[in-house]
Amino acid sequence: MTRMVTSLSALIISIVLLISGNAFLTTLLGIRLSIEDVNPSVIGWVLVCYSVGFVLGTLYVQRIIARVGHIRAFAVFAAMAAVAALAYPLWMTTIMWAFLRGLSGFSIAGVMVVIESWFSSRATNSNRGALFAVYQIVFYSAAAGGQLVVNLGDPSSFMPFTLAAILLTLALIPLSLTRMEAPFIETAERMSIVNLARESFTGVAGALISGLLIGGFYALGPVYATLAGLDVARTSFFMAAAIVAAMLMAWPLGRLCDRFDRRRVMFLVSVCAAVTAVAVAIVGSNNLILLMVLVGLFTGLSATMYPIAVAITNDRMESHRIVAASATLLLSYGIGSVIGPVTLAAMMDVLGPAGLFWGSAVFLALMAVATSYRIHRTPDVPVEDQEHYVAAMPEASAVLAEIDPRNEEFHPSPEAEAEEAERASA
């Protein structure tokens, strides 16, 4: 494990800088728009452009990478993201910020595909489970740490945007100096959402609702905290705690998924998350510690809906269709992340800050009803026939699904096979 992490150190450093800078910028924008007294529904439309750009990026950036190569493409996408970060304070208009959010989303999708393809190229059948876990730990830790960077400057000044641009630019250095061979990206197969829903409606719906909730919270959580009266420091800890909870709750709920029927686990998670969302809406910011605990439960449960949806779907897929199904579930999650900020921002406009969680509770209740209906209308997959649960990540590209430990059709690259043979002979 240590040798594997060391060999990927340049890649890991770039991930940490990139993800922390992007997470910091996302929270900063929500706080800044709230300080400027922008209407919550308008904030939703501005911030949702990131998700739109990200979804479009996952569909088209592979063509750019194939044309110019991985390192050049990474440099282009990282530079675009850094330029967007610097441009925000130059044009304080919602239309320009919406455009810049779309550009940021497209750019981040590009760098994610490059990074994840490099991870995939280093995976073998013996290490891909560990590699998959390392990537997730690094990603979530960097995202949580990025929230705390918000405390380093006044959100109403130019300085935080410059700091975000510095982090995004620094991410260029480790990968630009790497001697790793550029991997080959295969075009991922895709299934239509309609066709996949016919085979696993609960899986597609779970990915959609998870994207709606998590996309809505990441975009509007800082807005909620600011409107609820939290200062910048408390807002940063509020967001960091939510991300850490999403990472920590994946494993205990995964054990439930391996022991019980997964659609019933999805129903239970939906109900518990809905109750927690209602509790957050009622408690508000009157008790900060209780608020952070409840929000952590809400985001942890909501984030876990995506890997449960993947597990439910994979139980109904032949092994050679897992990557295609995963790509479609990511698209469903992306569509949800586009719907969430707009819809939940409209709820905040009507009901105040608590509208973020009242609206989330409504969508979770609908998910619980839909899951219950499917449980009673279609047969279960026996627990002994279920695939092993893996805490799949939604904030990724279809490339990462190739090293999912459940993907029996995985074929390591020649470079990875050679490295594995060398380690075995050492």
State the CATH superfamily name. Answer: MFS general substrate transporter like domains
Count up the helices. Answer: 17
Helix amount, in percent?
Answer: over 70%
What's the story with the biggest beta sheet? Answer: none
Lay out the secondary structure.
Elements: H1 2-7, H2 9-35, H3 40-68, H4 70-87, H5 94-121, H6 128-148, H7 159-170, H8 172-176, H9 193-199, H10 201-227, H11 232-248, H12 250-259, H13 262-283, H14 288-314, H15 322-351, H16 355-377, H17 414-425
Helix pairs in contact: 2-6, 2-7, 2-10, 3-4, 3-5, 3-10, 3-15, 4-5, 4-7, 6-11, 9-10, 10-11, 10-14, 10-15, 10-16, 11-14, 12-14, 13-14, 13-16, 14-15, 15-16
Overview of this protein structure:
- This protein is mostly helical and 426 residues long.
- The protein has a single domain (2-419), classed as Up-down Bundle (Growth Hormone, Chain: A).
- It is 75% helix and 0% strand.
- It contains 17 helices and no strands.
- It is globular.
- The protein starts with a helix and ends with a helix.
Provide a quick synopsis of the model.
This protein has helices at residues 2-7, 9-35, 40-68, 70-87, 94-121, 128-148, 159-170, 172-176, 193-199, 201-227, 232-248, 250-259, 262-283, 288-314, 322-351, 355-377, 414-425.
